[in-house]
Specification:
By secondary structure, the chain is an all-alpha fold. It contains eleven helices and no strands. 61% of the residues lie in helices and 0% in strands.
Length: 260
């Protein structure tokens, strides 16, 4: 639905979307959720309803937070399980809380939003940026209360709030750079070792295992594209051809999709 209204006119929106999953597996319906929220933002922005456009932007931000928490659990499962001992659900939802082996990114919606950022200590996000997540949640909550006035009335006001969201996402993404490279190295080795049954073509692994199953964003895929495989080739000489072919397939995909 995102093509109903031209969302490219909304400041920072495309940059924010580049941090969200490209084409995740259908079971969770994440992509339709993102597209519907994107359209909501674009419609409200077009008609000057900047507060409601920002509320939609914050929903995308929290989707990014949930995705990042889930990916940390996939990349660093031992540290993740140690860290989630803090996890508490909203009152009355204790039985529904299942984040040790979360099968949906939306499982994290049962946890108070500011608590989730504590997981980002695993990726070495500093205290100020962890606090920034909480500040954005607090700001959204304050604006969501019924009052006699709207807090965001102008394009400039929206720009400032949207820029704060984008800045937080950018900081978190930078801290995910090293974990994503670690994860991609493992994907490459598993492919070379034939651990992906039925996958002979790197394109299929990129599409189904990386973009769909792992919910890669454009920016995370670009991290994979930028990563050198020379150290892996040095350590695994017998995989040199497969590693180079896989890396070329990632680059080709990024070019075909217009990411580079």
């Amino acid at each position: 639905m995102s093509d109903v209204v031209d969302y490219t006119e909304v400041p920072y929106l495309q940059e924010i979307l580049n941090y969200l999953p490209i084409d995740p597996a259908d079971e969770e319906d994440v992509i339709n959720y993102i597209q519907n929220i994107t359209n909501l933002i674009a419609v409200n922005y077009k008609y000057g309803q900047y507060l409601f456009a920002y509320f939609g932007l914050h929903l995308l931000y929290m989707t990014f937070i949930y995705c990042t928490a889930w990916k940390i659990g996939q990349i660093e499962p031992a540290r993740y399980k140690d860290a989630i001992v803090f996890a508490r659900s909203y009152n009355g939802r204790e039985r529904d809380l299942k984040i040790e082996d979360a099968d949906s990114i939306f499982s994290y919606s049962l946890i108070p939003e500011k608590d989730i950022a504590r997981l980002f200590k695993i990726i070495e996000l500093d205290r100020s940026q962890i606090s920034a997540v909480g500040d954005l949640v607090d700001t959204r909550n304050e604006m969501a209360h019924a009052s006699e006035k709207f807090e965001i009335l102008t394009e400039d006001g929206f720009d400032a709030k949207a820029n704060s969201v984008l800045a937080s996402m950018s900081c978190i993404h930078r801290c995910m750079d090293k974990p994503i490279r670690k994860w991609f190295s493992e994907v490459l080795l598993r492919f070379c070792q034939g651990e992906y049954d039925g996958y002979d073509n790197p394109k299929d692994v990129i599409s189904e295992q990386m973009i769909q199953s792992f919910k890669l964003s454009v920016n995370e895929l670009l991290v994979c594209n930028e990563m050198s495989v020379s150290s892996l080739i040095t350590a695994h000489r017998g995989y040199q051809t497969k590693l180079k072919n896989f890396k070329k397939a990632v680059s080709d995909h990024c070019q075909e999709m217009g990411y580079i």
